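Continuing from the previous page...

OK, I double-checked the sequence for Putative tricarboxylic transport membrane protein against my notes and this is the correct one:
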Amino acid sequence: METVANLLGGFATVLSPVNLLYALAGVLIGSAVGVLPGIGPAMAVALLLPVTYGMEPTAAFIMFAGIYYGAMFGGAITSILLNTPGESASVVTAIEGNLMAKRGRAAQALATAVIGSFVASTIGTALLAFLAPVVVDFAVRLGAPAYFAIMVLALTTVTAVIGSSRIRGFSALAIGLAIGLVGIDTISGQQRLTFGVPQLADGIDIVVVAVAVFAVGEALWVGAHLRGTPPAPTPVGTPWMRREDWRRSWRPWLRGVLIGFPMGALPAGGAEIPTVISYATEKRLAGRHGEFGRGAIEGVAGPEATNKGAAAGSFVPMLSLGLPANAIGAVMLAAFTQFGIQPGPLLFERESDLVWALIASLFLGNVLLLLLNLPLAPVWARLLRIPRPYLYAGILFFASLGAFAVNFQPVDLVILLALGLLGFLMRRFGLPVLPLILGVILGPMAEEQLRRTFQLSHGEVSGLWSEPVAVVLYAVAALVLLWPLVGARLRRRRAPAA
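Thanks. Re-ran it with the corrected sequence; updated structure tokens here:
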């Protein structure tokens, strides 16, 4: 009952006229972000971080949540119409969705994606509301050794899973940890990696890092690869579904939530892997007589529901443990830091009104997105005709303006350009961006918990595994790191026998 009461209080906050406008603005921006290829929700929130300095934290996070969910909705539109995923989590949707569009069933594909997204997001947000406090009750009992182990596990699993190779992933993580060390050591008072620049004594602002790596790096990368013009949009028509389409869609919607929510709640979560699992599951269940490969509606309904279930699940570790499950979670954690709010288990206690307003805004955003995306699908498709040089020139302009607005120091523009070039080079050589952002955010936190652990154990290394939870987490991290080696050895042993 306490959860229901808190949720009703959150709705009371969200339904104020001002917050309603911010929620509407968030879903509109998010839908546009999802439609435009190459611009993800993490980049959009990173660009808006400096703009929200003067806003109330509750209003800012209501808008950010709307952007996140809106981008997940909008990414399906280009996947279906143009075979061009606007968001990485919508890649699987393009497989069957574009085939449906080529068969003249774009309306049905869009409808099952939008309605399925609404169903999955609503169920996933309800699970978030009831499960996140349970995770918090467990987390407040943990000590510094367990928290350090959680951060090690998060950094290890995300870095091991993201990217084309583990060497690239851990290289990106090392860069992020190094950036997080810049500034004055809080214990010794010594300057670290400042190179004699006094403006770096306070460290590099996470807003500047996020804007540079996401926005500037992506803009430079796209600018270096501009070729041709986007194809003409496919006619959309009026989204509607026949009785047969409803019958074939509702089970994949429910299965999508069951697959997406728990995997999205993992520190190494995200929606890419569960959407692939959902597609494979629906294809296997359809059997030989299914329409997979010719435009199966199940191949759109399942992955889209999984996508939105994973999006809801990603808020569980972010709100309850202060650990991001994906890039947007990392940028939203930076937003908490920007407003002077410490994310973690005490967030529900210290900022209860903000957290429950944020969760309530997710329910409201689902309704707004359902009402907006069905009639506005043709409009979003036309946005793809914006010339990309103009689009990314605008991004660079607002990125520079936002970075300068952080401290009003010209040195931030130099840092922005340098880190933007770093983001470009990371894309060039296949280094994932997410481990770098995680290193910048979680690195200082992990250092603090590590030092606190050694203080409690009087410098004994055994203090790192003095709690049972820490031992389990280290074992899981070791398993994640060693499993590829063990699996390769097992395959080599089986090969001679075969």
